[in-house]
Structures are given as structure tokens and as C-alpha cells.
Amino acid sequence: MSAVGIVAAAGSGSRLGADRPKALVELAGRPLVAWAVDTLLAGGVGEVVVVVPAAERETVAAVLPGSVRLVDGGATRTASVRAGLAAAGAAADAVLVHDAARPLTPPDVVARVLDALAAGALAVVPVLPVVDTTVAVDAAGTVATALDRAALRRVQTPQGFSRRVLDAAYDDLPVGEELTDDAAVVRALGIPVTTVAGDERAAKVTVPHDLHLAELQVRR
Ligand code: C5P
């Protein structure tokens, strides 16, 4: 099985409050996007496409291996992944979509996703259990219901798919409809999504505290 990786790196990262797009924010002296690309290659992905903010193409190219292809992103994550899929070579039979915002994802997670695809899964997501009591609130912020956390999972990336299935799912998704991850796009087609174990180190860098934690992790 051959796999192409798509790294979604075209977000602005406004919640991080940095002076540059999030993918170019540095962790231990290297931009987040470079960490994410390394993880995919180390985990067994053969080819990588990175979706970047159009204005940052050259800056991103300068920090990545020459074999990585770059493509301009869109206004939303869904639009960016669409652009990445369109640019991905046709040869690979599997595709892994990864967030640049998860720089410390261990290559083992990538390998688990690839193994599940090789075993026949059409769609695979890494997940972690929910450890906090989790509730739903109404519009006023009052607790409406407590959810059974035993059945809940936090979903990470990279998410893996049969190339044929992900192409079909994005073709089927009406333009302008935005979903927060790629597994949701595939589930809209009625395809079952398999889970494998995620990793706390694959946490997403969203706010400044997340970056502090990531810095502590690499310094250990
Ligand atoms: O905003 P959020 O943290 O959920 O974004 C997840 C990932 O999607 C990030 O790696 C970000 O760079 C990417 N993204 C993108 N294009 C957008 C918005 C987000 O590639 N327009």
C-alpha cells in the first residue's frame, strides 16, 4: 500500500496570537509545519503535499525537504484539504490528512493508521478517551445534560482513508459546507470510521499554553 500525506497548514492561527501563520510558529527553533511533515515521513508516508497560506509559499518551501509539494490553501480547513487532495499524485491508494498544528505526533500514530488501512479499513482516526466529566449546555450556559464519557473519544490526526473513498466523499460534499475533520466528510457518505489509539503528544497547538506545553515536551 502506498500513502500520500496532506498537511493542512493554511490556517491563520489567530487564537495563538502569533505574528505569523501558525504553521510557521517555531517550536524548539523549527516551524510547526516542519515537525508535522517529519512525522508523516518517519511513520511511513511516501509523498507529502502541504497546503499553505498563499502569501507564505516561499517561506514554507524554505523550511521543508525539496520533495514536498506545496499548494495554496482556502478560506476554511475543508477548502484547504480539497486543494491538497486535488494536488496529490494519483498513484497512492491511501491518503493521510494531518494538521500542521499537531507537531509532536509520534510516528507510531502514523504507523497505526497505515496498518489499519492495510488491514482493510476505509477510514481510520486516532482517538483518546475523555477523562473529564463532559456536559452539554443550553444557550444560557446551564447544564442541559451530562454525557456518558465512556462512549466519548477525542479525535486527532493524521486521519487515514482509502484514496477512492476520500475523493468520493469530498466530491459529494456540497461546496461551502464546512466540517471540522475529514472523517466527518466520509461519514456523511455512510462509510464506517475505524479508530486506533491516539497519543497525548499529538495534542493540537491552538492557544499559547499549548505551545508552552509542547516546548516543555521537546526539552525533556
Ligand atoms: O483552526 P484549527 O486549529 O482547527 O485548524 C486545524 C488545521 O487546519 C491547522 O493545521 C490549520 O493550519 C489548518 N487549516 C487550513 N486552512 C484553513 C484553516 C485551517 O489548512 N483555512
Query: Low-confidence parts, pLDDT < 50 over ≥5 residues?
Result: none
- The level 1 CATH classification is Alpha Beta
- The portion of residues assigned to helices is 25-40%
Structural class: alpha/beta
End-to-end Cα distance: 35 Å
How many strands appear in the DSSP assignment?
A: 12
| CATH architectural label | Alpha-Beta Complex
Walk me through this protein's architecture.
- The protein is α/β, with parallel strands linked by helices.
- The chain has a single domain, classed as Spore Coat Polysaccharide Biosynthesis Protein SpsA, Chain A, CATH 3.90.550.
- The protein has helices spanning 32-43, 57-61, 77-87, 107-118, 163-172, 182-187, 208-219; strands at residues 3-8, 26-27, 30-31, 47-52, 69-72, 94-99, 123-129, 135-137, 143-146, 153-155, 159-162, 194-197.
- The strands form three sheets. Strands 1, 4, 5, 6, 7, 10, 11 and 12 form an eight-stranded mixed sheet that branches. Strands 2-3 form a two-stranded antiparallel sheet.
- α1 (32-43) crosses α4.
- The radius of gyration is 17 Å and the shape is globular.
- The mean pLDDT is 96.
- The structure holds cytidine-5'-monophosphate.
